[in-house]
């Protein structure tokens, strides 16, 4: 198991907003009464005139951000991903995505990351929801170093971006800030028997799985996909051609997220056996974050099982041709 | 502010042109929202031909005054005012709601010059206007933001989130106008979901309120806006009493004409507004 990072993504987010403030003309940060938790309170302390706490009113926050952006500001909206992608979805779609306004959504507490709060607070559908909205860019970094890069890229991009962040420190994948380009994934570990395409916190788990699989003689390529939309089609197709078997891994419902996005690319370009690791279309329960991942289908064992399954299917197909 | 008899006459003439264009463009499309378009004709007239500092040759001028049409279904009246003001040729109105048009069924800021905010999903415009008003403060610009709401629209919960936020952030450059035509798609607002007491509600949320007893009377509207503009330290709501379908006898006060309930009668409507 990779050790936990010392920094949580929300701390990286607050730091990056402070760092970028001099570079981004018109930066304004909005929060809906969770600033102490999202850490935007640190930005508020230093830039009081560029911070708006709208209270517990996410719909108003998103439409206000649209108005700010329409008048030339660069609003960064902060609250739980569960609320952003459901409660203020109408506002996000109508007033931000449709007119393609320059609003950045910091979707905190993605997936199960506020675990013990329970299913009311888990964001398990946001990738599917946001991905299906035209003009939206959807980023899911895997650790705090990558979160920083993703937020920088989001702020430099002209248009709406949704960045999904995890709440507490996660296993670090990177030792130094990775190269980050919207729309690009990257290979982190080589292998030709199958490829695991992972996003968010599942990237670290995919690396753990690849280590375990190697002991069983299977060489799994690990690909990180920090940009769900646009997705890196070329990298997926290349992996399909070179390995012939794909596993996707995401902290999200099995419907609509990374697995669906990868499946769409494969079906239209290079159909190969595929298995999707994620939440099996169910609500979960209160528990610690990492316990929930293990309990609801996203453990390293689940990845290993899926990898072996997909490899077996590949072998069967090869034996028939 | 110009309130001479001459200017009122001039504005009344413009309002008659806008009313005629609203009906002609809806008749041309065969569908649209005549009722709520006709009830805001004089409000649009006063905004674009008396109050707003805008430059039709430079629609994205950063210092321009802005309008958010929160009741986006009033689009026909907005487009007519913008065309008359010179943002785009009057002939564009003939293409309202048609394939390839710059005039969408509901306002689209990316397609129509002069449209400052996309709208159509009710309840969101007040929040957007507040965002714009606060942007002026942050950018040290002096533009004014107007937002036009429907009365049925205030049934949306987000309106009250925005009402709370506006009185908290206290922009001095935000004026809301409530088109109080008393009707919504399904019938009387008072029967579908009562919103009274309106004045008391906005006051309780920390707003200054101004009542305009006749939202089709140019002089009354000018007076109401003058009062509103004198308030500099908090948001202002002008509640304008209007008539849904104003100017077409069989549409007035008739919920069925929120949309086009009988396309066969549109030619009669055109004749009536052309005669007026």
Description:
The complex is a heterodimer of chains A (321) and B (276). Chain A is an alpha/beta fold. Chain A folds into two domains: 9-164, Rossmann fold; 186-320, Rossmann fold, CATH 3.40.50.920. Chain A is 42% helix and 18% strand. In chain A, β8 (194-198), α9 and β9 (220-224) form a beta-alpha-beta unit. Chain A starts with 8 loop residues before the first helix and ends with a helix. Chain B has a single domain (5-275), classed as Thiamin diphosphate (ThDP)-binding fold, Pyr/PP domains (Rossmann fold, 3-Layer(aba) Sandwich). Chain B has helices spanning 5-29, 34-38, 41-51, 75-85, 125-139, 157-169, 189-192, 198-204, 218-229, 266-275; strands at 66-69, 145-150, 174-180, 183-184, 187-188, 208-212, 236-241. Chain B is of the alpha/beta class and 276 residues long. In chain B, α1 packs across α3, α1 (5-29) crosses α4 and α5 packs parallel to α6 (157-169). Chain B is globular. Chain B has a five-stranded parallel β-sheet, with helices on both faces. A two-stranded antiparallel ribbon of chain B has the order 4-5. Chain B has ten helices and seven strands. The mean pLDDT of chain B is 96. The chains are: A alpha/beta (321), B alpha/beta (276). The A-B interface holds A 26, 28, 49-50, 52, 54-55, 57, 59-73, 75, 90-91, 94-95, 98-100 and B 62, 66, 68, 108-110, 116-121, 123-125, 127-136, 138-139, 157-158, 161-162, 164-165, 168-169.
